[in-house]
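Input record (Table S2, row 926):
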Amino acid sequence: MNNSYLKIAGIHKNFGSFTALNGISIDIKKSEFVCLLGPSGCGKTTLLRIIAGLEQPTAGSIFINGKDMTYMPPAKRNFGIVFQSYALFPNLTALQNIAYGLKAKKIPKKEVKERALEALALVDLLHVKDKYPAQISGGQQQRVALARAIALSPDFLLLDEPLSALDAKVRERLRREIRFIQEKLQITTIMVTHDQDEALTMADKIIVMNNAEIMQVGTPQEVYNTPANPFVADFIGSINFWKESRKGKNEEKTAAIRPEHIRLSRTDGILAEVEDVEFRGPIYRLEFKVKDSSSHLYGQSIKVDVSTHDVNHLKLVKGMNIHISLPEESILAYNELVVS
Amino acid sequence: MEAVEKSKRVQSFTKTKSQRAGKEEWLQRALIILMLLSFLSVLIFPLGTLFAKAFQNEEGTFIGIANFVKYFTTPSLVQSFQNTLFIATMTTAISVTLAFMFAYCLVRTNVKGKTFFRYTALLPLFAPTMMHGIALMYLFGNQGLVTKGFFGTIPGIEIDLYGPVGIIMAEVIYTFPQAFLIMLVALNGSDNRLYEAANTLGVSKAKQFITITLSSVKYGLVSSMLVVFSLSFTDYGAPKVVGGQYNVLATDVYKQVIGQHKMEMGATVGLILMLPALIAFIVDQLTQRKQVSYVSSKSVPYQISQNSKRDSLSFVFCSIISACILILFAAVVLAASVKVWPYDMSLTWKHFELKSYTGDGFTAYKNSLIVAALTAVIGTIFTFVFAYAIEKIRRMAGVRKFGHFLSIIPLAVPGLVIGLSYVFFFSQPKMNILGWTVSNPLNFLYGSIAIIVIANILHFYSVAYVTAVTALKKLDREFELVSESIGVPFYKTFFKITLPMCLPAVLEMAMYFFVNSMVTISAVIFLYTADFKLAAISIVNMDDAGNLASAAAMSVLIIFTNIVVRVLYEVVTKLIRQKNMKWQNQ
Ligand SMILES: Nc1ncnc2c1ncn2[C@@H]1O[C@H](COP(=O)(O)OP(=O)(O)OP(=O)(O)O)[C@@H](O)[C@H]1O
Ligand SMILES: [Mg+2]
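Output record (magnesium ion complex):
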């Protein structure tokens, strides 16, 4: 056996004539934190539901620890799940919500309470144990849902956009908290998200999906620094694309560079004019138009991220001319053409 | 050692879990199949039998549309068809207009006493339609209070009550609350931003009324028109009591089937009776889809502007309507409690003894209570469980969709047609399915209380079903999935989460079943037996026997019972809401 704990092999899913998943294969190691990242409608939730057994694949198999569980009912798969809506039972208190699943097992009453309290303590919410979901904040509800999911010591944890209903500050705190708990319990976790920051900050491994297919699998650094194709490059972070024809050959390729890799200088590089200045707090996003008619980038618009300090130093304003340079080592090359 | 023990324990968990998963799936499938079988035996087979009969002769041979041809060539039957159309059209015009104006006053003006007006408008729902007829007789009949000029104090007004005038008046009162409820919902669902936009553009009030108000309630208007039309088209109670010699379809059916034993003609008229409701049903299904987008979560409720002249006018209008309703009820209550109307107006309890040769008095009332209670309890259980199966179980999607369709079909079947089709289906010892003749396993139900209860449940099923589905839809779709993932069986979540959360809806369904079972006559008129009469039927029998005061007393008893049940419902609902305050969203 290889060392994959959860193996997803060639999953297809059709809804009528519509293909929601097209040949998805993933290997997930034990204790890994995996993010499924992709634009809306690409099939992330469908894949998660198939892993959970809430939906049957049209073709393909799912193995856990080498055991085929493609057609196993959800209750037997031993996973915990947190939905976007949390789905906390409104007529049960936080503690009762967590104890709900434990009670169904033949566990002594005392142990049920102990384990429920333990789970609540893990998410640091002992003080709201007797409150009903409607009486606690969204972030707290989210943590109760998480505690409920892990109280049964599941083999793996499934999270479907668990943070999308929360405001930015709470979100950031919960990212760290979820990751902390996951590491503490060493529980294999698959989280669906369409927020790239979330995936980049939390995941051991990111699976980028688009149009029912996997575009790239890799660590956050890999998908950001060496995106496998223009879609990933564009979907994660920002990027500049341009067409590049190869010397000698009658062939066109796509080149790309991230805005933060472009250098500015008063003297060296390609002459360009500042077309737009957008303030983003720690940095400025500048939009340049290449003015140098001898450059192969002539006429092209280029986004550049510049630190606030540099903008002030260079006294950059709209309409000003300055030189830009694109370091060779930061340029990405693709065979696919990008229409933009 | 410890580790071994632990792993054993874990094993035993997984084992019980796997067995339960199998059992649960089996249970869910069984539930859905039970639902399908129920619909088959109480809806599809009976209606199918009725349908087949309309195209057969007395011997049961297929004769195509000969029955319909015969129907439309028999002058007396054509006459009653025209009569029915006339009644339904007039009722619709009057009832919907009044209901719209009444609802408009309550929603769009600052008229005083809204709660009072609202409850008064709903009062007729608690009474059988015969009561409206009886009340009209006491007011406008030969010895009526108005006819006689209030004991000769003022000159009397004589109207030709027995016939179309009386029927239309009774039907308007009967259908008014139904139309009013639909208009209330329609008028409440408007977006104030539209009016604000119109005001800033300088659109005149009259034009706003036409372009915004009317267009935003047009579906409600169409819907209430269709409902009122089909209710008055198929009502049996009012024409029976104040119709005189004026024949309508509903009374025809009864005469054809019970009087002349012409089953196939009864079936033919039954199918014709179903037409308006069927059209209403189809139109409703089509418009409902469009209507969804009208009110969004961003909509702003209507802001009532200050206008005291409009408010006083509304007050006058609402008072007149309420007075009309209250006078009718007062007349019946009074008639039931005086010795001999209008000659000896001293009070007495004697009519409430319900001594009558034909009506079976108190026993009938007791029977009605039993039937209403059984209908409420059994109907609510079945409706809610079936709604749950359709809404929340993940298996057998196709069957569930079909189940949903079947669940709203009863909306299109008038009570009279239900009763008739039950007679046809349940009375036959053998039944014919696609050419196969088998003995009818449900024949034993015929002539029992059970068939009356079943007919009632089916008759009022759809409204209760929609109530249940609406409540279930408000619950998170994921509750069942979460339970499944943490290994809690679905029935446990049903009892611990779903049911408690839907308790107010469940009570509403039970109340609806009860109240309607008390007042209904159309379905059960064909199904009751001589030794199990019902209160609503005894009203008709007492009226037939000329014992009007007892009929009035029985009506009062029914109304009183229904009001008590309604008040009880309100009190219990309030208590539940208070208790659940903590977990309800503020
Ligand atoms: N039960 C279903 N029947 C038909 N189509 C479905 C069904 N469930 C999902 N789909 C379709 O499959 C596609 C993928 O859906 P899915 O919910 O997996 O997307 P997603 O990646 O989770 O998107 P989002 O980010 O919006 O949640 C969508 O186009 C959706 O419309
Ligand atoms: Mg999704």
